[in-house]
Amino acid sequence: GLRSFVFSSLGCYFISLLMCDLLQGAAFTLNFRWAVLGSMSEGTLCTIQGAVSQLGDLGAAVWSTAISIHTFWLLFLVRQPHRRAGWFVMVVAWGLLICLSTIGPAAIQQSHRGPFYGLTGAWCWIGDGYNLSRLLFLYAWIFGALFLSLIIYSLIYLRFTLVIPIENRRWPFRLFRSQASLRHAMPTIAQRIMWYPIVYGIVVLPVAVCRMGTIAGKKPPFGAFIFAGICFTSSGMI
Question: Three-state DSSP class for 105?
Fold first, then answer.
């Protein structure tokens, strides 16, 4: 039931992903404050928006990866992960997210490069003087999550379409009345699974293109940043 799912490893990962999606949305709603003020400026509010945005954006990539790996373990390897694995992942992942979101202002920020969290177009995030940190603290994780998800869900797709045989192993859970009915439903499930990396790539690509363009010295139009931000913060709809 719902209670067992909430307290399962997959349920904890899913709730963590929703929390990060909520943080993304909260950070983006601060743009309404900028609109009321009529301008953007560096300071406490900008730092808060940058840090919350970083935590939410990075968290979405990390927890998407955790869900992908857990799904791979269940549906491709046909095994149940160890009970303690979920708690280990939760502690390590949240510790990593908090560390990568706070280490910038605490240890990397330099006065001649400006604040670590500063103005970056349509909202506040890691400042223009910290392009390497942008790559290491977010983009590498986003593209890694996208690439890994594409591989994992492709393998699951091949298994569910029986291109990769299951070798007569039984599934570690019951979603259907019989193994025969599960096999019959596999092609439909496989097609639905493959939509996840596709949609994730669609919502991530616009902001990645805008940011990569900025790093390359070609600043995209303000409207492009707005569109990219809306797409990226809509990742929770996946």
Answer: helix
